[in-house]
Amino acid sequence: MLPLFLAARGLNPVKVFRRMSPALAVALFTKSSAATLPVTIASAEQNMRINPAISRFLLPICCTINMNGCAAFILVTSLFVMQNAGMELTLGGMIAWLFVAVLSAIGNAGVPMGCYFLTLSLMSGIGAPIGLMGIILPIYTIIDMIETAENVWSDSCVASMTQHDLRREIPPTPEDEEVPAVL
What is the largest distance, in Å, between two alpha-carbon atoms of the chain? Predict the structure, then answer.
C-alpha cells in the first residue's frame, strides 16, 4: 500500500526505497526502530533532501507511534492463536481485535521482541492459551526484522509525502536547490 500512496502523490517509490536503504538495512539487522532513528534521520536529510524541520519533528514521532509491522503481527498472531485454541471468532470479534492491535501497537516499545511480548500480554489478558505462541518463537527473529524494516519504511514514506505536500510552504535551503527532491 505504501508505494501506492507515494505514487498517488507523484513520488517514485523505488527512488524513496533506494535512498532510504541505509536506514532500512540498519532497521533490518538491529530489529529496533529507536536504534535506527539517527540513521533514518540522516538518510532522510542527506539522501532524500527532506527539510530538517520536517525530519527531526516527524521521524521521532513516527518511530514511537507508527508501528504498522507490529500492528499486523498482533492481529495475525492473535487470530491464529485463538483459532488454533478452538476459540470462536465472530466478525465483530475480529474487528475488535483489529482496533486492539492498532491501538496497542502505538504504545509498543521500539526494541527487539517488544511486539512479541506485547502480543503475549494481550493474549493472556483474554485467557487465550499463550503456549501456542511458542510455535512462533523460533522464527520470530526473522519476523521482527521484517516488522522493524516495515516500520522504518513507513516512517520514510510519511516523511517523503509530508515534504512533498509542504514543499510550497517551507522555503528550500541552498542545498535543496542543488539536488532535486525525490520525484
Answer: 62
